[in-house]
Amino acid sequence: MAKKYHVTTTVNGDEYEFLCEAQQTLLDALRDELMLSGTKEGCATGDCGACTVMLDGTMVCSCLVLAVEAEGARIETIEGMANGDELHPLQRTFLELNGLQCGICTPGILIAAKALLERNPDPTETEIRYWLAGNLCRCTGYDKIIRSVQAAAKEMRGG
Amino acid sequence: MATILEKSGFNPDKKLKIVGTSPVKHDGIDKVTGRAKFGADLYLPGMLVGKILRSPHAHAKIRSIDISAAEKLPGVKAVVTRADFPEIKAGTPDGDMTRNAMAREKALYDGHPVAAVAATSESIAKEALKLIKVEYEVLPHVIDPVQSMQPSAPILHDHVRTKGIKGADQPSNVIERLDLGIGDVEKGFVEADVIVEREYDTKPMHQGYIEPQSCVASATEDGQIELWCCTQGPWVFRDRLSNILKLEASKIRVQQSEMGGGFGGKTGFYGEPVAIQLARKARRPVKITLTRNEVFRATGPVSGTKSRIKMGVKHDGTITAAEAELIFQTGAFTGSMFSNAPQAMFTRYNLKNVKTVSYEVVSNRPKVNSFRAPCVPQVVFGVEGVIDELARKIGMDPIDLRLKNAATEGYKTIYGETFGKIGFVETLEAAKRCDHYNSPVPPGQGRGVAAGFWFNRGGETTGTLNIAIDGSVTLILGTTDVAGSRISISMMAAEELGIPVDKVRAVMADTHSLGFNRVTAGSRTTFSTGMVIVDSARKAIAELCKRAAVIWGVPEDAVTFEDGYCKPAGANVGTFEPLSIAQIAAKTMATHGAIAGHSEMNVTGAGPGFGLHIVDVEVDKETGRVDIKRYTVVEDAGKAIHPLQVEGQYQGGAVQGIGWALNEEYYYGEDGRLQNPSFLDYRMPVASDVPMIGTEIVEVPNPRHPYGLRGVGEVPVVPTMAAIANAIGQCVGIRPQSLPMSPPKLLKLIEQARAQNGG
Hints:
Helices cover about 30% and strands about 15% of the residues of chain A. Chain A has helices at about 25-35, 90-95, 105-120, 125-130, 145-155, and strands spanning about 5-10, 15-20, 50-55, 60, 75. In chain A, strand 1 (about 5-10) and strand 2 (about 15-20) form a beta hairpin. The longest helix of chain A has 14 residues, at about 105-120. Chain A starts with a strand and ends with a helix. The model of chain A has no long low-confidence stretch (mean pLDDT about 95). Among the domains of chain B are: about 5-35 and about 460-605, Aldehyde Oxidoreductase, domain 4, CATH 3.30.365; about 375-455 and about 605-755, Aldehyde Oxidoreductase, domain 4, CATH 3.30.365.10. Helix content of chain B is about 25%, strand content about 25%. In chain B, strands 3-5-1-12-9-10-11 form a 7-stranded mixed beta sheet, sandwiched between helices. A 5-stranded mixed beta sheet of chain B has the order 7-15-14-13-8, sandwiched between helices. A 4-stranded mixed beta sheet of chain B has the order 16-24-25-26, with helices on both faces. In chain B, a hairpin with a 2-residue loop joins strand 20 and strand 21 (about 565-570). The mean pLDDT of chain B is about 95. Classes of the chains: A alpha+beta (about 160), B alpha+beta (about 750). The interface between A and B is large, with 63 and 64 residues.
């Protein structure tokens, strides 16, 4: 049996402890150890963005971060995006403008889009497209994703 | 049994309150909060991790497999090989299916499963795979389908004799030759003033769903199986699993997860039978989630093709004849559905003389699987190129040439169906009217158009509508929701019942809870399940009327239903306040118990779909890079039940086609191994690669559907590559004939064009 490491970390404001093997990724730990399965695996090689989370305020592919690196870190995932019963404006615009079809890429795209709007509240279409270029979507052709982000940005700027 | 629905059809006078609006889909909230459960999101107590050992060879005899060391590794709970799968005759559909799931006599492609383990952790499972000793006898392999057709090619299956060739008595890699035609092409070509003949090739592309296949299988000691998986067809999976594992269908319960993209690629199983056999051996639940590497190496791409296409036209624009020779690579096993291609490739034009010869060929690559309009976009890539060239040669606008030859109601197709009311002319006219086509082509850019057709499908479908005691409604559906069919079907139910769509909720059934449903494929789900649920709603309405009659003490036929209320049919019935569904439902205990409607049909009457794409491109003459500047999809939806979702289908299909057109292809090494099994090296379009995709929804109602819908999932990818190639041709001076139209290939064309123009 491979040796396991003890990790203490904060996810969406809650403190968690888990045991993991040295080679386990943060993505695996979130899903398999903490049962936070909202973060998705599409490739496990950092190419699709489905596993995007925030790690100490930085956007990362959680499949490229080792679980042990989460020690003492502050992690934000899709499960923490809504504020109680109140959806984040991005979650709402994605629903209203059909920014999702199958929904598998949606958690990663929402996390990435939120990170964008926190840095740049008024991005151009091109800036949104390049920011989200690391998040693959095979269903939508991106059109309605971009429009959903634009609508949320506008709303968050106060209309 | 004649259903209530079959007596009606499309009602143009029905006033619509819900159909045609775009409410938020009910399953959306779970998908924006991370709550939705996809294939990999089920965790069961005691669950093991399953991993599959795959052949590193493209073609090899499997002499022996020694699993003894793997079985002894602590934490390993089961190991399975071919010895754990029932023997089924090779060359039968079930024989092929079991051999694709687990190699028997031979490994037929790089990535072909040869053994699998279930262990208490992923790291133990991976270590166990390394302890399995497989003795291979490596055989010569063949990747390219044309090489595979040569007499000297290594034979994949000794039992194959080419179907469709009389007297074929030698083993061959050609599974089938199919001849399909109408009229007299020789005569047709004699009548032509201009003839164009070109050769084309397209490459296999992967469906590219972001969710890798994942499943969890559980088994009881007495042989009951539960399977959770992302599938486009739970019932089809169950029945095929029943066949290859020799288990009774009633003992296999398949529960579909949310579907993280399928596009046809999840119509067949991969790890599922392996997980079941591991679970039966281990007596614990087993989860198998494919890696992206496994998805690329071993799950179904789309057929690559070689084609020769010849068409003739008169100076007045009448197309007189069309001829095609087509080769489809199907991977290691048959199943490409290549017969779609000769049936659909020219269908949309009212041709009288058509001749096609098609071949399906195996080679040492993963078995292909369905993808939007299987095998059709590949050959339309050529057809619409020839048509464009014909238009230029006779000096006619490319849309006008298509209009001149457009099929209309009454045209008898090559596959025998006579078209009813179709919307190809209306689609072309809408394209001619749209802003994109009427805007001048910006300097330095090229514009291309191309048209496409798909049959749209019906098929066996089952569904149930239940009315709750408070008058709200639940639907039990079986056809997998791949992109939002649940909301569209809920909208049709609400429209029928005259209630807000928010009062309706749909759930996806497992295979124990509903009768058979064919796979979600061919743009059939919103159409077919919509039919079944409208039928169920009308049955429930008939029952509501009966109950109202009981409550009022009047004859059944004295009650009618209108806008959500049962009302007296006429003044002489008596004076009664209309009863709402909720009021009637509240009294079901006193009347005759629960009110529900159920329907099963083999749905017919799918309305053919047509589209025309317009695209403007810019080609960097120094690098060969293509920039898609503007794109418009014009397509007949029949009726857009949920316009935002219809637009989404148009846009998504077009962007998949952009990837297929410009980037996506597989690279095999000399050793027959796939060299680019990752999203880094297999380049699908990202957000910065594409512009907004304009849409024009044309609505020529399908007379055979109560709301007139046709199905919109397939057509959006059919003309894409052709439209882009036609646009590139305008830019570069030579129309590309080979996919993908990648920078190195386009640079060659640019040089060739320069040389032709005297440098």
